[in-house]
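Now for today's protein:

——
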Amino acid sequence: MLKVEIDAFSGFRVYPSKGKLFVRGDSKVFRFASSKNASLFLQRKNPRKIAWTQVYRRMHKKGITEEVAKKRSRRTVKHQRGIVGADLATIAARRNQTAAIRNQQRISAIAKAKTEKKEKESKKAKPARAPVASGPRVSKQQMKGGKGGR
């Protein structure tokens, strides 16, 4: 079995007895498939910006079109929910009402409110007190007699 290395710059395969080996001062080993790759590495070029490297191709999604299908996004589903004053059934019933029925309900509600108001007014009118016939009206301050009513 052959030990196939990976190029430190381009990501290409480096077969045994091929390419260059570079050992940095901190003893890290870099293998290169060609002197071109070694030269660009030593010039501190960024392989992500060089179009023919594997890193560039991976970053820019090149050559993987047939295996990856377009992602499908989920459609949002609308739900009907009841609110505080009304449940779903009453909301549906109101929505299906005709304008004439709605108008009739409004008129009957107004009439009912008016009759209730009249009853309330008539109840208020009955227990009216007879005004107490007293002397001249005097304010609280005058009653206290601050300066003796000069």
The chain has a mean pLDDT of 86. The CA atoms of residues 64 and 70 lie 12 Å apart. DSSP finds five helices and four strands in the chain.
